[in-house]
Model the fold of this input.
Amino acid sequence: MRKSLLAVFAAALSAAISAAQEPGMHGEDQKPKRIELAGPEISVPMHLEKGRPVVDVMLNGKGPLPFVLDTGAGGTVLESDLVRELGLPTVGEVHIGDPIHPHGLAAKQVKIDRLAIGGLTLSGTTATAVENSGFREHLGARGVLGMPLFSELLLTIDYAGGEVRIARGELPDPDGRDILSFRQDHTIRVPITVGAVAIEADVDSGSPAAVSLPEEFMEKLPLDGKPVQIGKARTVTAEFPVYGATLKGAVMIGSHRLDNPALRFNKLPNANIGGEVLGRFAITIDQKNRRIRFREKGSGPAAAAGAAANPSGSAIR
Done:
């Protein structure tokens, strides 16, 4: 039975989760102290690596270095080999845990003077260094970009267009159709409906799957048959089976409908929307106002284009 590549990522991304639990080490530490944009809106090419968006990054002037852009990551994570190559200084220590066991292995928190993505330069931030991350081996990447980096910006991941756009500004008020409010602790969590069940799900570009749910939902949803084991997932502290089945019904994200999607079930406590679903959209995230827009392919101009026309930060319409 093959192991899910989602498992490889779970171990590293959980560093950001437990970092928030350490005194003095939380998402605020990873927010950049200075943000510089070369224009009102910048765009950079991205490619998909096993369903995950990857962009080129410069760290302290060195690079380009491929990084996964992960909306499910509550912080930036680097492979330790890269930290040693760049000589990044250690500024603290965190514990790498996971949603099942919040404390685990010790890891270093390192300082980054400048992180550049195309025409965006972020100065004065930190990242978590992880040994044996598997980033390069499995994804050809040197780390993960977490959401605190973009907390003051509009971030658009345009799957169809193959680019990432970054701008200042804000999204319009939620309409319950394309623009939704979200809850954010370490993840971006939106309301969805699976069959007749209303739940919240993490928007997770770092997962290549479609819709993943806690195991308890195997007994609550109309499925085309009994779920069967399709793989295993591994976090820092645990390994567990992943089950699959097809929903007899629809998943609704605002007004967007997915009929009879394949579902995955595992022991993790939160539902999750991954790349197989997100690939239908250009998603724009406004963390300042806790809003997210899902725009399907061919449904209109991309969100960040509106931001370019509104450099003062007025609402995008």
Q: What stands out?
A: Residues 5-19 form the longest helix (15 residues). The radius of gyration is 19 Å.
